[in-house]
């Protein structure tokens, strides 16, 4: 399975989009990250946002986490349902986690929200 490429149109760029997800969406904390989701029937594809604050660490660590979050989405993006805003917020201990631990934590939250399409076996 080839990883999905993330076009720019999948990124949340407007501050108002983040504010709507925060105000009207649902959040669920994990060990290393918090995932917030807002269902929007008018969306024809999902939109992603990543928040990695300075509390997490220096710039190179924040960039590393953003790259890891993007890699997780690229790996599992073809399984995501299309009509959602998804915001991933890094917690302070996320820099201590390996890629596998972050992926496991993100997938656990995604399954809770029903973000993943059912794959027939």
Short description:
One of its GO terms (molecular function) is tRNA binding. The protein is an alpha+beta fold and 121 residues long.
Walkthrough of the structure:
The chain is an alpha+beta fold. The protein has a single domain (8-109), classed as Ribosomal Protein S5, domain 2 (2-Layer Sandwich), CATH 3.30.230. 36% of the residues lie in helices and 19% in strands. The chain has helices at residues 15-24, 59-76, 99-113; strands at 26-29, 33-39, 47-51, 84-90. It has a 4-stranded mixed β-sheet with strand order 1-2-4-3, sandwiched between helices. The longest helix has 18 residues, at 59-76. It is globular and about 35 Å long. The two termini are 16 Å apart.
In which range does the helix fraction lie? Answer: 25-40%
Q: Give me the CATH architecture, please.
A: 2-Layer Sandwich
CATH topology: Ribosomal Protein S5, domain 2
- In total, how many domains does the architecture comprise? 1
User: What's the alpha carbon Rg, rounded to whole Å?
Assistant: 14 Å
Strand order of the largest sheet: 1-2-4-3
Number of strands: 4
Oligomer: single chain
Protein name: Ribonuclease P protein component
GO cellular component, one term: ribonuclease P complex
Keywords: Endonuclease, Hydrolase, Nuclease, RNA-binding, tRNA processing
GO biological process, one term: tRNA 5'-leader removal
